Amino acid sequence: MSGIVPKENIELFERLGDITALARSLSDENRLRILVYLADGKQSVSRIVEELQLSQPLVSHHLKELKRCLLVNVERNGPFIYYELADPRILHILKDLAAIGEELLANRKTL
User: What phi and psi values does residue 14 have, to the nearest 5 degrees?
Assistant: First the structure.
């Protein structure tokens, strides 16, 4: 492997499975919408449903996937379940991806 991957990227190369799982969980627009909405803080499932105008089963499905990938934390308070971002850096990653996409598209248009 040392001949294939530069030394400074070996650790990253060895973690590609983890990265793939996270990238897969970010590959759905509704999951991204939920993550961006949760950037404002802890929210109940019903509030997410209302604000994003998605069905409750769909939101629950996506929250389950986000929880499985450790992107959201869950808190139960009586009959209510609240979700929040597990780490604020998640939003930074989304912003960085958006900026990279914008730059790539701008460069493609100028060629």
Answer: -70, -15
